[in-house]
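Table S2 (continued). Query chain:
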Amino acid sequence: MQGTTHVSCGLCTAAAFAVFPPATSAVPLLASAIPTTFIAQVLLVATAALGSLIPDIDHPVSTISNHARLSGKLIRCFVERRGALHAPLLWIALALLCATFFPKIHIVIAGFLIGIVAHLALDSLNSVGIPLLWPLTKKKFHLLRIKTGSGLDRLIGSLFLIGFVGVLIAGVLQ
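Corresponding output:
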């Protein structure tokens, strides 16, 4: 998927989480990550937008690599394309570690995780897929075969952007 599609999905998903938070009784770990102020909601959505781009830093011409050139080059020296940075287990483990050692920035951690999970969900819709069970196996999993940059990719991005605006309106009216 294109960077714009990833960002619109991250924005929509985080805004939905901020405006319509899940029941904390279902997932107690999420209780401290639910934004209770407007500033926390904005922070959650902004970090999710950035998080939705981070897994593609291992791609030399991705949106995030174009902005973090030196970091992207350094990271590409150590990871293969669509490898560890596209592995859900890695990001969940990293988020749990960060939440344990840095509890005061739980909103930021939640935002990044929401964006990253949104990214991985979208990438599971194209033919390359994601290494769902990495590091146990490098086998990539995919649900569909949507081509990056295709009309369907752009349509998905547009629908998430419309959803984001809809969630913002719902939040204001709430």
